[in-house]
Design brief:
The chain has 7 helices and 11 strands. With 286 residues, it is an alpha/beta fold. The longest helix has 26 residues. Helix 1 crosses helix 4 and helix 2 crosses helix 5.
């Protein structure tokens, strides 16, 4: 199977990449079932990349229904070391306006129904997640976003809600009081699983609306979001073209060794089935 070093997860509105139009669709099997769709394998300036639409082509998978375990395992199977997440988000601050790009540094998890770990079924471990994004990657995405001409915000917290309904006004106001910056429905599970898989992960978040707290956006609608997503897609394509040639450099971050001291289960009692199924994730440590 062809390998790719850089993985890209396309969010709402980004189901294909202009410069990957001639890429090869590849189905990947995983112990966790099917990923969201086929991975598109191709190259940018000779660099092998893999693209996956988070919600599937045609946007048919709810945020809660996304098989995050399969998606990340599939990238690992393809040889990916770094994952760029492109995401649509709402803004919780006046100064973060629609059409802006945010490179967040933190998460606040409000989900309740997500499978977001490779541990379990006889193997227990705990990875460090104090700093959930690879900051080396995040810096490269920030620089690329600035070069597109977008208004870029460095840092901030991405609140991951469950969805699929948008926030109530009361919820939105509470999140603002908590100091949250942007709100979305998908990235937290990807980031947790990528860390367990010792993959670098960073998000370029494209703001589509002010959520419902803002007087001009009291009712967030799909039409509003999709209209801004279409405008943002060109910026996302350009950002990726600029970032990927820089991201190909060798890793010098802690992400690549995240599992080194994480596994607490006695290796002798880890079920053989789990050792076999998850060799790709835990193999070098068990």
């Amino acid at each position: 199977m062809q390998e790719a070093k850089i993985g890209i997860i396309g969010g709402s509105g980004l189901y294909k990449l202009d410069w990957l139009a001639k890429g090869k669709p590849v189905s990947v099997t995983t112990p966790f079932g099917k990923p969201s769709d086929k991975y598109i394998l191709g190259h940018l300036e000779g660099i092998p990349v893999a693209f996956l639409p988070r919600h599937g082509i045609g946007h048919r998978v709810l945020p809660t229904e996304v098989n995050y375990q399969a998606n990340i395992f599939g990238f690992k199977k393809l040889g990916v070391e770094k994952i760029i997440a492109i995401s649509a988000v709402g803004s919780l601050k006046e100064e973060i306006a629609p059409m802006d790009v945010v490179i967040p540094h933190q998460f606040f998890d409000r989900t309740t129904k997500r499978a977001a770990t490779f541990f379990g079924n006889g193997i227990v471990g705990h990875v460090s997640f104090a700093n959930p994004f690879c900051m080396d990657m995040a810096g490269i995405l920030r620089d690329a976003a600035k070069k597109t001409g977008a208004n870029v915000h460095w840092g901030g917290t991405y609140l991951n809600m469950e969805g699929p309904a948008f926030s109530t006004r009361s919820e939105s106001e509470v999140y603002r009081q908590w100091g949250m910056d942007i709100i979305g429905m998908t990235n937290i599970g990807e980031a947790k699983l990528a860390r367990e898989a010792e993959m670098c992960y960073a998000t370029a978040a494209f703001v589509t609306d002010y959520d419902c707290w803002h007087s001009s956006h009291e009712s967030v609608t799909v039409d509003m979001v999709m209209s801004n997503l279409a405008k943002n897609s060109q910026t996302a394509n350009k950002l990726l073209e600029l970032a990927i040639p820089v991201l190909i450099k060798e890793r010098d971050c802690t992400c690549k060794d995240a599992l080194k001291h994480a596994i607490v289960t006695d290796r002798k009692i880890i079920p053989a089935k789990i050792k076999k199924q998850l060799k790709l994730i835990f193999g070098k440590y068990i």
